[in-house]
Amino acid sequence: DVGTEGGCKQIGEAVSTILGDKLEYLILNAGIGMRSRVQDVTDTSLYRKMLDVNTLGYVYTTHYCLPMLIRGGGRVLVVSSVSGLFGLNGLSAYCMSKAALHGFFETLRNEQCVRSVTVGYPGFMDTDMPNRNLGADG
After folding, report:
1. What is this structure's pTM?
2. Which active-site residues does the annotation give?
């Protein structure tokens, strides 16, 4: 479960068990959506849920895999969203969670502890995600 730090730690441990102490590539691609205007949100805990999965899931997984990435001369690929670059009506929580990725992974890139960090910002994709989005009340 990438929505918890413990789940991300388990991912790191599983990667280490399966692949050893060196990791060449880490591809981060997870997310949940939420469609609601800010003024219509009735359950503010949804903001935390968005951050837990869409932001901290990436951060914690990277943290627990970072020693292996450093030893392996690794590369990190972050699948974000164009929604992280712009404030889009009805997507405030999603935009917030994806925008935070930009700052964190740009910093990781600037620290140069891994070979490369690439953040991709795909546009709107034809997936089932909009049908599964959370609403104003969850």
Report:
1. 0.87
2. 94
